[in-house]
Specification:
Layout lengths: L4 E5 L4 E5 L21 E6 L14 H14 L5 E6 L1 H12 L4 E7 L7 H12 L7 H13 L7 H8 L9 H11 L5 H8 L15 E7 L7 H10 L4 E5 L6 H4 L1 H13 L1
Parallel strand pairs: 2-3, 2-4, 4-5, 5-6, 6-7
Antiparallel strand pairs: 1-3
Helix pairs in contact: 1-2, 4-5
């Protein structure tokens, strides 16, 4: 277990927020679509990123142990937990293994397992973007990322090349400033470790007892409606929200809809 560095943002009931990648710091999450207006966001730097720094291993169990250490540091018996992308994988594993310590669970743009359905959805969504001027560079960057063919100092530029694929409609003027800062504190080692180790959490999902919201974008090419449906099928009573006009970065493309759905769920 490593001690997680965090930053608090906003005011209101605490919401622990775990970013994705893996290998991205809290900078990726920005203000989560303005959730800091109603929640005190505890934004996490996962192991290997930001102020938390490098670790010896990057197994899923490591991330789960780190998260429970953070809960203890917060002196809370149960937390409201939001996991984005890879952070959602961590959040699912945590909620399955530490059921008594999660009050409400928000799974944002995440996936429990790669399946035929999610693979088909990926190819379908990517095909709709094939005519974009950035497409060839983004696809090449994604292929390099999957191969692990990059150095620690190349991840930032690789991310900038592939990032447009993660949006329903890429708008450099609107998202450029976020893109420049989103890779702050990022690290290649966690991402390489993740790509080398297959995962499948579908068998763990029935163990989750927390009230759960699954939210994603209709045009998310990696964690879209097919991934959301598989998660909801495994978690009793899970609520699903699919946002139109959004890809993977729901809280950037549709901030008002994202904030409204998450806050409504948490406030009940």
């Amino acid at each position: 277990m490593v001690k997680l560095a965090t930053t608090r943002r906003g005011a209101g009931p605490l919401l622990v927020c775990h970013p994705g990648g893996p290998g991205f710091s809290r900078a990726e999450l920005a203000d989560l679509g303005g959730l800091d207006a109603t929640r005190e966001l505890v934004l996490v730097d996962p192991r290997g990123t930001g102020a938390t720094g490098p670790a010896e291993t990057y197994r899923l169990d490591d991330y789960v142990a780190d998260l429970d250490g953070l809960r203890e540091d917060l002196a809370l018996e149960a937390v409201d937990l939001l996991g984005f992308s890879h952070g959602g994988i961590v959040a699912m594993a945590y909620a399955a293994g530490h059921r008594q310590h999660v009050r409400k669970l928000v799974l944002a743009s995440t996936i429990a397992a790669v399946s035929e359905e999610t693979a088909a959805e990926m190819e379908r969504v990517k095909a709709t973007k094939a005519g974009e001027p950035w497409f060839a560079a983004a696809e090449a960057a994604l292929e390099r990322e999957e191969r692990g063919d990059y150095g620690d100092d190349e991840l930032g530029e690789l991310w900038k090349a592939m990032a447009p694929m993660y949006f329903s409609r890429w708008d450099a003027a609107r998202y450029g400033a976020w893109l420049e800062s989103s890779g702050d504190g990022s690290s290649a080692a966690p991402l390489r470790a993740f790509n080398d180790e297959p995962f499948d959490l579908r068998g763990e999902l029935p163990r989750i007892e927390a009230e759960t919201l699954v939210i994603t974008g209709v045009d998310d090419f990696i964690c879209g409606p097919a991934a959301a449906a598989a998660i909801a099928d495994g978690i009793a009573g899970a609520e699903v929200v699919i946002l139109d006009g959004a890809g993977h970065m729901t809280f950037l493309e549709q901030p008002n809809a994202f904030r409204s759905a998450v806050e409504s769920f948490l406030a009940r």
